[in-house]
Dihydrodipicolinate synthetase (Pedobacter cryoconitis), 1196 residues
Amino acid sequence: MKKAPFKGVVAYPVTPFDNNESIDIPLFKKHVERLVSAGSHGIAPLGSTGVMPYLTDAEKEAMTEATIQQVANRVPILVGVSNLTTEKTVYHSQFAEKAGATAVMISPMSYWKLTDDEIVKHYDTVASKISIPIMAYNNPATAGVDMSPALLKRLLQIPNVTMIKESTGDIQRMHYLRKELGEEVTFFNGSNPLALAAFSAGATGWCTAAANLIPELNIALYDAVQENDLDQARRLFYKQVDLLKFIVAKGLPRAIKTGLDLLGIDGGGFKSPLKPLTENETSELDGILSAIKSEIYQY
Amino acid sequence: MKKAPFKGVVAYPVTPFDNNESIDIPLFKKHVERLVSAGSHGIAPLGSTGVMPYLTDAEKEAMTEATIQQVANRVPILVGVSNLTTEKTVYHSQFAEKAGATAVMISPMSYWKLTDDEIVKHYDTVASKISIPIMAYNNPATAGVDMSPALLKRLLQIPNVTMIKESTGDIQRMHYLRKELGEEVTFFNGSNPLALAAFSAGATGWCTAAANLIPELNIALYDAVQENDLDQARRLFYKQVDLLKFIVAKGLPRAIKTGLDLLGIDGGGFKSPLKPLTENETSELDGILSAIKSEIYQY
Amino acid sequence: MKKAPFKGVVAYPVTPFDNNESIDIPLFKKHVERLVSAGSHGIAPLGSTGVMPYLTDAEKEAMTEATIQQVANRVPILVGVSNLTTEKTVYHSQFAEKAGATAVMISPMSYWKLTDDEIVKHYDTVASKISIPIMAYNNPATAGVDMSPALLKRLLQIPNVTMIKESTGDIQRMHYLRKELGEEVTFFNGSNPLALAAFSAGATGWCTAAANLIPELNIALYDAVQENDLDQARRLFYKQVDLLKFIVAKGLPRAIKTGLDLLGIDGGGFKSPLKPLTENETSELDGILSAIKSEIYQY
Amino acid sequence: MKKAPFKGVVAYPVTPFDNNESIDIPLFKKHVERLVSAGSHGIAPLGSTGVMPYLTDAEKEAMTEATIQQVANRVPILVGVSNLTTEKTVYHSQFAEKAGATAVMISPMSYWKLTDDEIVKHYDTVASKISIPIMAYNNPATAGVDMSPALLKRLLQIPNVTMIKESTGDIQRMHYLRKELGEEVTFFNGSNPLALAAFSAGATGWCTAAANLIPELNIALYDAVQENDLDQARRLFYKQVDLLKFIVAKGLPRAIKTGLDLLGIDGGGFKSPLKPLTENETSELDGILSAIKSEIYQY
C-alpha cells in the first residue's frame, strides 16, 4: 500500500498582502493558526488559494517556513511547489523537504501543453531528488493541462508519487481511479461543489479553501461519511453547497478573502492584477454566509 | 407536494425488430415481463433505449398497448411521447392516457434549438390536453437541446409537470434542483454512470436500461441508499460501474441488445441505420458481464 | 471528375404555414419564384430553413412537386430527404428522383449518435436505390452528429455521393477537404458567417437562406470571388455579415420569416413549437436590414 | 487613426538552449539574422515560440538586447513582456522600451481567470508606465484566459494599445473586430492555419513562427493578398497549410526546432520539461517539408 499521510479536510490558507503588495507573514500565521485550531486535518500553504504562482522564490520560502513554524507538528503540511520548469520545481521541492514539509503538491504547470511523456519525465525527475511523498494535482482550469486518469495511473508508478488530487469536478474521473487502482490508492477531491459525490465515491480527503470560512461544516461532512451516515452527509452538504459553488465561480482568493472580511477577520490585500470581489458579489456572498449561519445551529 | 408516482429503478425495455425491421410484439412482451419479474419499480416503454423516434405512429401505439397489457397494473408505466411538433406530442400523450399509462415522459425534441419560451409553451400545451403527470426529460445528447435547471424549475410551475429526469451526467444540475426546489421535488437520474452520485444527492429514482442486464445490482444499489448504508452502496456501485459506462458509451440499444444475446436472451434485431456492436465491442462487453457475474455472489 | 450540378448561391425557401399550421402551397410557390427571379443559381426546398423534419410525408411530397413545377427547369433543384431511418430516407429519395429533382441532400439525422460504419452503410443503401447525385450534408447543430472530414472523404467513395455541404462553421474542415481531395471535389458552405472564408478556401457554392432577404449581396459576393477580386469580396461581405450572423444566431426559420415580414413580404406562419422572433429581436433585425439598405446603393 | 508600426509577416525566433539548459545567445542571434535576411517584416523575440514564460528575468533581458543589437533598425521589433503580475509586466515593458523595442506584446497571463475589469486595469497600469505601443495578444490556449472581442474593443480605448493579435483561430472574432472598429484598426492573426482566412478578412499582418522554416511561402502569401490576387493566395496557402497545421498541433517550439534540424540548421536545445518531437513526429514533419520543397519551384 502506498503511504498517504493525509486524509479528511486539508485546508488551504490565503496569502495576505499589505498595501505595497508584499506578503504579511504575521497575518498569514494567524490564518494558519485559525485553520489548525478549527480542526483541519492538514494544512496546504502555497496552493491555488495562496496564489503561489504569483510569488517570488523568496516569498515562497518565507511562506513555507512560516507554516511549518506555526503548525508545529500538530497536523501534516502539504506545500505547493509547482513551476513551469523542471529545474525550479526541483528547487522548491528540495526547499520544502529541508524545511520540514510532510509532502509536496505538484501540478504540471503549462504554457505549452505538455505531452504525457514530458509530464511523466517531469514528475520522475522531481521525485528522484526528494524523499518525501508527492501529491499529483490535476486542475486544468488553473494549470492549463488536463491529466487523464490513465496518465495519473502512470504517475502512480513513480515510487513517491502516492496521492492524487483531482479538481476537474468530473466524478467519473474518481470512479476510474478507484476502479482501476483499487481501494488502497488515496485520491483527494479538489472541486468544492463535488464534495459529497467525491466522498460517496470513496475520496480519502477534501482539499479546500472553504475551511477558512465554514470549517465546522466541512469537517462535519467528512465525519458523517466516516460514520456511514449518508442522510446526514447529504443534509450537511446542502447547507454548504451554495457557498462551495460561489467560491469556485468567483475565484478562491477573491471569494475567501472577501468572505473573511465579512466574518470580521482580516484577509489581507491582493497582488495585482487580482482584485477583491465587486460590491454586488460581496453582497451575494454576505447573503450566502448569513443563510448558513442561521441554519448552522439546527443540524 | 407534487404527485410522484415513480421511485426506485424505472426500467427501459428494448424494442425488438424482426428480419424485415418490423417490431416483434410478442418478443417485446417477454422483455417487459422479465423487467417486471426482476423487481423493477416501474416500466418505461418508448424511451431512448426503445428507439421511439425511429418508430411510426402505429408502432408506438402497439408498443404502448402491449406494455400496459403485459404489466397488468403490477408497477406504474411511463410512456415516452416526445415529438418534434407540439401537435404530434399532444396526439401521443392523449393516446397514452387513454390506453392507461401512469404518466408520460417528454423531452423537447429539437432540430432547430428551441428557445425557453417555446419549450414552456410546448409543455404547457401538452399538459393542458391530458390529466396524467408529465416527466420533463433533459437529455441534450439525444434530444438536441439542453434545458437549464432554471428552465426545469419553470416547467415545474405547470400543474401536471411533476417529475424531472436529468440525463446530462452533471451532478451539479441535481444539486441545483434539490437546493432550489426542496426535498419535495422528485428528480430522476437518467445518466447510468452517475447512479451513485445522484442517489447520494437525493434522486428519487434511476431511469435505466441496465435493468435488462443486471437488475439485481441496480435494485440492490437503490436499496442500500434507502437503508442509509453508503459503504454498501459504494461497493455495489463499483461492481456495476464498468457496465454502466460501457452501455452509455456505445449507445443503449446496441449495447443492451448485444448484452442480452450474451446472456442467452433474444434481444431482437435493429432498425437501420442502427446496427449491433462490432465483434471487438461484443468481446469487451462479454468480459465486463463475466467479471460482474463472478463477483455477484460475493456481496 | 465527380459530377457537380450546383455552384454559386443555392437558395433555401421557407415553408409557410397557415393559421391551422398547414402548409400554404401557393404562398410557398411565390417564395420559390422570388428566389429564382433574383438570380439564385439553385433552389433547395425541404432544407433546415424549410423545417423539413417537422413535416409529414404528404407535406414533403407536395413541397417537392410544387418546387419542381414552379422552377420549371430554370435552375437545378436540390431536395432535402434526410430521415432518422434508412427506410424512410430511401422512400423520400426515390420520390424526389421520380418527381424530377436534380439531386438530393442527406444529413445523417440522429437521435442515437451513429457510428461511422452505420453512416456509410446508410448513404450506401440510399445511393444504391437512386441514380441522381447526393449531397452529403454535415450540420451537427441540427442533425446531432458530426461527420469528420475523414468520414466525408469515405462517403465520396460512393459513386453518386458527389458533393459535400459543410455547416460546422469550421474553416479548417474545408481546408482539409480541398487538400485531401483536390480541386475537383465540390464542397459547399452552409455556414452563413463563413461565406467569405469559405469562398477564399475554394468553396464551389454557398447554401443559404439569406437569399430570401438580400439575394443581390449574396450573388455579388460570389461574383467578386469569381472575378478574383478579393478587395471587392471583402467589402461585400462586411456589408452583409451582421445579417448573416443574426439569422444563424436566432434560427433560420424564425429570422427569415420575420425578415420577410419586415420587407413587406408575407413569410407565412410557423409550425409549433417554433415561434416568430420576439419584439426585441425583430427590432434588432429591422436595424440590420435598414443599415444594409442604406449602404446597398454605394458599392 | 491608431499608430501601427507592424504589417505583413512578423517572425518569431526560437530560443536555443545549450546542454545545461542555458540560453545560447550567439546561436539566437544567428536565428534573428536568418529571419531578417529572409525578408520578414518584423521580429518578435520572447514570444510563445521563444518560450518566454520559462525564462528568468536576466535571460529575458539578454534576449531583448541581443535582438535589438542584431536587427540594427532594419525592421521593427515586438518584445513579449507578459507576466502573471502587473508589477513584473511593468518592469519588463520598461526594460524593453529603454532597450529600444518598437512595441511590446502583452497577453493577460493567468493562473486564476481574470475578470474583464482586472484585465483592463492590468493593461492600463502598464500602458501608463511606457510610451511605446502595446499589442494586446489573445491566446487562451497558452495564456489561460480568453479575451472576448468586446473586451479587446475596450482595451483599444487605452491610448497606446494600438494593435490586436488574435490567436483563437476563430475567424468570426476578426470579422467582429473589423466590423466594430473599422478599417483603421490593425489586427494581426496569430493562428497559422487561419492565415488565408484572416488575410481575406482584412488582417494587417501574420505573427508566425513558420517563417523559421518557409519564409518565402509566408511572405508570398502576404504579397498575393496585397496584390488582390485571391487565386494566387489560395494556391500559396494550400502549399503550406499542412506545415501550418502540424506546427500548431505539435507545439511551436518543438516543431520549429525539429524542423530547423531537418533543414540542417541548428535549432538549439530545450528547457525541461519541454522536449523535441518524437521520432514518428519528426518523420511526419520531414515528409511535409519535403513535399513543400518539391512543389516550391512550381508556383
In short: The mean pLDDT of chain A is 95. The radius of gyration of chain A is 18 Å. Residues 8-229 of chain A form a domain with the TIM Barrel fold (CATH 3.20.20.70).
